[in-house]
Design goal:
Length: 337
């Protein structure tokens, strides 16, 4: 999952402005300096009501900075800046223990049969013993916990034990007729989820036409909203460790027209975002078969067509594993496909 900065910032600011409109008393706090400062009160106290009236009577257009086919003022523009990866956390993704379960139809990777459909030799419902044909292909891979399936009805029965050519299921099970197959116990895939972190930089540009004071009001309202909803919106949606820097108040000559001046002041948002990505899906190991890797031991001459595998040897003498001193110092604990 990648952090969708444009949509998250736009949606957050829309929610902020909507809530500020529903709570106009917040503007009293934003501009309370004009009412509480003894020097400002005499001259600027009317700014509070003027700002509230302007905010109540003007629609604030919230757009992405790349939207240029229409520009309506007053406007809050969201501009995406550079987003370099955090080098200090570049190896943290490899240490992730997070994984995700993926269904076969979700990733278009069907899980094959352990043992393909076959016709049973016999079945004793009183004991739950089902006999399979001799030399049934891949039957050696069947283990307890896997599922015996009637391919006609789709009904499954958990395998309790494998005894030679017998599959033991719950006694008294009614399995029906037709062909049967063996499917895995874990009928899904798992995949590791890794992470990277990036240092994000975004600009929120507040633009208004006419008096510069209007652009200042808009900036102050947006800045207050960002601070107020920092934890509840921005950080909750994935922008961590956010910092806000205000820029200079400037004219925008590209938007000024017929003697009307467009003023704007930007807010730079810095923070850290986390992105995750899914590694290759893999099956869960249900059984393992160990074979000698020496063709001289597994097939007669000529030595062609032999199958290799995993060979476990002791520290000193592969032929003697009875004594404790001859066992492996480092036993195999996990097999990660």
């Amino acid at each position: 999952m990648l952090f969708q900065a444009d949509a998250i910032l736009k949606t957050s600011i829309e929610l902020m402005i909507e809530d500020m409109r529903a709570s106009p008393w917040l503007l009293d706090d934003i501009f309370s300096n004009f009412a509480t400062n003894v020097y400002l009160k005499k001259k600027y106290q009317t700014q509070i009501q003027n700002a509230k009236d302007w905010f109540a009577n003007n629609k604030i257009h919230i757009e992405m900075g790349y939207v240029t086919d229409h520009i309506d003022l007053p406007r809050i523009s969201i501009v995406l800046g550079p987003q370099p990866q955090d080098a200090n956390m570049s190896t943290m993704g490899d240490a992730s223990t997070e994984s995700v379960v993926l269904l076969p139809n979700q990733i278009d990777k069907p899980i094959p049969f352990i043992v393909k459909p076959f016709t049973k030799v016999a079945y004793d419902s009183s004991s739950g013993a089902l006999e399979v044909p001799a030399n049934l292909k891949n039957f050696e891979k069947a283990v307890a916990g896997q599922v015996l399936v009637n391919t006609s009805t789709g009904t499954g029965f958990i395998i309790e034990e494998i005894m030679g050519d017998l599959i033991m299921i719950l006694s008294g099970s009614v399995i029906g007729s037709g062909k049967f197959a063996i499917v895995p116990k874990y009928q899904y895939y798992e995949a590791k989820v890794e992470h990277i972190w990036q240092n994000a930089n975004y600009q929120i540009i507040c633009t208004a036409m006419g008096d510069a004071q209007v652009a200042i009001w808009l900036h102050d309202i947006v800045f207050y909203a960002l601070c107020r909803y920092k934890e509840g919106l921005l950080e909750a949606l994935g922008l961590a460790e956010s910092l806000f820097d205000s820029g200079a108040l400037t004219q925008n000559p590209n938007l000024s027209d017929a003697g009307q001046v467009a003023w704007e002041r930007s807010i730079t948002i810095k923070g850290k975002v986390e992105n995750t990505f899914i590694k290759a899906p893999h099956r869960l190991i249900e059984s393992a078969e160990f074979k000698d890797t020496n063709p001289n031991n597994v097939c007669p001459a000529p030595k062609t067509g032999w199958v290799g595998g995993i060979k476990i040897a002791s520290n000193t003498n592969p032929n003697t594993l009875a004594e404790e001193a001859e066992l492996l110092d480092y036993p195999i604990e996990d097999l990660d496909p």
